[in-house]
């Protein structure tokens, strides 16, 4: 049962948001788990501190990695992780790709990698930022949260046309036990559990479906971990299934990170870390496999 009191039609005011923030605490270290590993391979990329979160600028610098030997005649790929800070394999998957895998694709692509867009969320294991706003519903226009605003400005400052955007996420059991009940309480709306998909899936953009690209990602990930089957209603998280493990959202209208670029190919990966069939490393491997599958497809379909 949720410990949040839900008052239908009575959204939180500032006092309720501050009360929620007062209950949050640091549970892990952004410096140790993100910044230190990132520093170990900064020499292989052009590393840029593109900003810092105003909640604590010294603690939460924002870093992006850009291919060092950038070539304008190559297609460019954006990889984002940690839009939702609590989704661990999105962050660690982006770092693992930069460390171990990106080099094998640099003859074909330029890369821009923002591995942890929401470091406060990473440390406190939160979906929201300290203002109780969801960064992954704030990628409209120039950005509506500090997390979205700063990464949008960074990517746009590079002035490049993107071929593809991989946004690395997780769907967790805490979506039902913690974060969706909190959202219902915050917004004064009724709350109902949804069925958490048991396995990996992707979310494409309604405007840029590119189903064969999504299917290539699914095929690659299936070699590493299991793909989420349809629920009893034939859907995943309430959305119709387009193909095995693939659903779609209108990312632009929802303000999702995957919708802020004009890239032809965009995918949101969703790992399920609470399955008894997986462990932390398997979840990271699935994120890297998703990137490999998508990139291999793009190499074969220039």
UniProtKB/TrEMBL annotation:
Protease listed as a keyword: no
Write the record's keywords in alphabetical order, separated by commas.
Hydrolase, Metal-binding, Zinc
Needed cofactors, names only, are: Zn(2+)
Pfam families from the UniProt entry = AstE_AspA_cat (PF24827)
Q: Name one GO biological process term.
A: proteolysis
Q: Which stretches make up the Peptidase M14 domain?
A: 26-302
What positions constitute the catalytic site? 270
InterPro entries noted in UniProt: AstE_AspA_cat, Peptidase_M14
SUPFAM superfamilies under this entry? Zn-dependent exopeptidases
Task: Please give the Gene Ontology molecular function terms for this protein.
Answer: hydrolase activity, acting on ester bonds; metallocarboxypeptidase activity; zinc ion binding
What family is this protein classified in?
A: Belongs to the peptidase M14 family.
**Name of the protein this chain belongs to:** M14 family metallocarboxypeptidase
What species is given as this protein's source? Pleionea litopenaei
